[in-house]
Write a structure and sequence with these properties.
homodimer; 208 residues; mainly alpha; Arc Repressor Mutant, subunit A; Tetracycline Repressor, domain 2; 0% strand; DNA-binding
DNA sequence: CTCGAAAATGAACATTGTTCAAGAAGAATC
DNA sequence: GATTCTTCTTGAACAATGTTCATTTTCGAG
């Protein structure tokens, strides 16, 4: 009996189905929004029983949170792919990457930020940490651009900046209450970053 | 028969109950979040039947939207109460008023921004317009601070600025993913507004 | 007081998340 | 290969909740 590594046939099938279920749930959320996600639809699409979904994810929230977890992962991957050579370009790249991800996966991102737990169950720690990590990605380039500031200050600044960018994008992409016309969003966002950096005393030539 | 003005006993009672139902629904949303709002709970609390709720609001969304409508109204009232004497102070006042409202009525504001309609029914035009109106309140002071800019530009700037403030506040108040420590939020928000204005070329002495 | 319109009622229904006892499938042991 | 034990799968049944509607009640008009 091989306790450790052996990937039994059972395990393989289990993982395969788990992946399938997540994929299906993600497609439902992405195309029709979180509210349209139904256990029965997922089970039907995966050609398995309702019970199997519960077996795999515990409850409905479990499935949603799994999709959300992968959404943060994808977002983080995309943000980390932004070149870090030049801090100014990196900041713009981060804002732009966030915008790109948000417009391509609007419903997935909404699911991440808007989903409320049943009852008063606490929001999972790990997802929270992952979101914070993503938000912290603006920290490094800002430190390079503001070498003389108190690091604690810069940490807060970066979170503020990311929150602001998040607000502009999430309201800007909300097709109902269009706060900013979509076509312009991209350039306006860049303008916003520039303006804010200028306010922080960083001019375009300030690169390290 | 008096067709026009007579406020019949029936009408009085109807209005009275409508108000009661809205009040109850609001309290549920405010204290326990939108997800916890249940038709039966509302009906029970108002000591009337489920049917009466439907009679009054058409469907569940109707009740939620009515509460949300009053939430924007209250927010707008509060924002409009900010003194307009000095544009710089007014901008800070608006940001601060928004923060105040958001922290006192976190769940109500969330309900406004996060509620999704059933199926694909369109978001009500009037609420949309009211939110846009509220967002536009930053426009006037910005115009005074930036008299030389293209007015269209300023209009977009003000919406961007409000969206940014909204992002900072809504993420900042989210007790799960705390992007900014709550105690600091107020001063940080003021700092943000200052920084951004500085980036726009407005210094503290620039008042009209 | 009578009549008709409007409102109120709540049982019944539809949808959807959740549970669980029974059965099927697979692994371990001989 | 048969047996046994564990684990997974199933789907019927249940629970919670939004919605409908035939019936009853209320109430103003004549």
């Amino acid at each position: 009996m091989n306790i450790v590594q052996e990937e039994s046939r059972r395990d393989r099938k289990k993982l395969q189905r788990r992946t399938l279920l997540i994929e299906i749930a993600r497609r439902f959320i992405a195309t029709k929004g979180l509210r349209s996600l139904k256990v029965r639809d997922v089970a039907d699409a995966a050609k398995c029983s309702i019970g199997s979904v519960y077996n795999e994810f515990g409850d409905f929230d479990g499935l949603i949170l799994t999709v959300n977890r992968e959404t943060v992962e994808a977002l983080t991957t995309r943000l980390k792919a932004v070149p870090a050579d030049d801090p100014l370009r990196q900041l713009h790249g981060l804002a732009d990457a966030y915008l790109g991800f948000a417009s391509e996966h609007a419903n997935l991102l909404r699911s991440l930020f808007e989903h409320r737990m049943e009852d008063d169950r606490p929001f999972p720690e790990d997802i929270l940490a992952m979101v914070m990590d993503a938000f912290a990605l603006m920290h490094a380039p800002l430190v390079r651009l503001l070498p003389d500031r108190d690091p604690n200050d810069v940490a807060l600044l970066s979170r503020m900046m990311f929150s602001a960018v998040h607000g502009i994008i999430s309201l800007g992409l909300e097709e109902r209450m269009v706060a900013v016309p979509p076509e312009m969003l991209r350039e306006r966002l860049a303008q916003f970053v520039d303006t804010h950096l200028a306010g922080l005393g960083v001019s375009r030539g300030d690169q390290v």
